[in-house]
Every structure is written in C-alpha cells, then in structure tokens.
Amino acid sequence: MRLRAVGRGMKLDEVVKLVEGLREKIHFLVTLNTLEYVRKGGRVSYLQAFFGSILQVKPLLKLAPGKVELVERVRTRREALSRLLSEFKSQLATETEGIIAVMHTVAEEEAGKLQAIIKETFRNAEIIINQAGPVLGTHAGPGALALISVPKADPALL
Predict the structure, then answer these.
(1) What is the value of pTM for the model shown?
(2) Sheet harboring 99-104: ordered strands across?
(3) Collapsing DSSP states into helix, strand and coil, what is residue 126?
(4) Domain of 85: which CATH number?
(5) Mean pLDDT, consecutive 10-residue segments, the chain of 158 residues?
(6) Could you give the count of Cα atoms lying within 13 Å of 30 in the half-sphere of its Cβ?
(7) Chain centroid to CA 94
(8) Is-contact 49 38, C-beta < 8 A?
(9) Are 93 and 148 in contact (CB under 8 A)?
(10) Is residue 127 a contact partner of residue 103, using CB atoms and an 8 Å limit?
C-alpha cells in the first residue's frame, strides 16, 4: 500500500500519516510452533519454555500497537490453527475489502491451506501469502503462522 501511494506521487509525510492512521485498524494474529525462540528472546523463562515443550503448548498471540498479548494457549498444532482462524474471523466482517496476508516461517504447506480457507471466507479481500521477514522469524521461530488484515484505504489517498 505504501508503494502504491508513493507511486501515485504522495510525499513521505503523507505516506507516514496514511500508515499511522491504519495502524490502529490492523489485526495481527500469530501462532507459534515452539516456545524456544520466544525464550531466547527473553519473553518467557526457560522453565516456561521447558514445560510448554513437554505439554506441546502452542500460543496464539495478538500483536497490538506497542505490545504482544496472549489470546490463548492450546495443546496441539491442529487446535492452534483452528483457533487462529476462528479468532481472525471473529475480528473481521466477511465483506471486508482490505488486504489479508498469510505469513509463515518455513510453513508453506500450512500457509497454503490457510490461504485457501481465507480466500473462501473473505471473497472481497485481496489475499497475499508470503514468508515472514527475519524479525518475525527470529522471534517466532520456524513453523509460525500469522494472519494480518489491513483495511482498505481511501482510494484517493493511494
């Protein structure tokens, strides 16, 4: 979206205002396959990561401006993906016309399955799929899956 705005001649300060206005409206949910990388990043203790590994805990996290919130802890990968989808669907109207991104860290097959479900549910949205960048990859570890929605901006701004 930022590139579209720049391509249409928007000045940098106008693009910054556009992005800041959208920041509060973005929904970002992620489920982790392991707690090991959040332990390495100092977000959970060694003991929490150890017991989480034994119990196969898969956290569902919500990223809000300036903070990470735990939505739920589930015990299996299948349940984690199910809860990721249901929580995401509960936050958006199916008529949304924004952009929905399916992001993953070395989980292409599962991301493709999520993308198909999202396309079927949110028929008016632009759906993209991509491997997450190094920041999310470093903190989330392999097997993380995220669903991100960005609302449709005023076409006059793009």
Answers:
(1) 0.81
(2) 67-74, 58-64, 27-31, 145-150, 99-104, 126-131
(3) strand
(4) 3.30.1180.10
(5) 57 79 84 89 84 88 85 93 94 89 95 94 93 87 93 57
(6) 24
(7) 17
(8) yes
(9) no
(10) no
Express the helix, strand and coil content of the chain in percent, nearest 5 each.
Answer: 45, 25, 30
Please give the single-letter amino acid code of residue 145: L
Assess if residue 98 is contained within a domain: yes
b or e along 1-31 (b: 16 or more beta carbons within 10 Å of the residue's beta carbon)?
beeebeeeebeeeebeebeeebeeebbbbbb
Q: Is 66 left (phi over 0), alpha (psi -120 to 50) or beta?
A: left
For residue 40, is it within any domain? yes
Dihedrals phi, psi of 39, to nearest 5 degrees: -65, -45
Residue 33: give the domain boundaries.
Answer: 22-153
How many other CB atoms are found less than 10 A from the CB of residue 112? 12
Q: Hey, what are 110's tokens?
A: 């599962």
d(CA 33, CA 13): 38
Helix (H) or strand (E) holding 145: strand 145-150
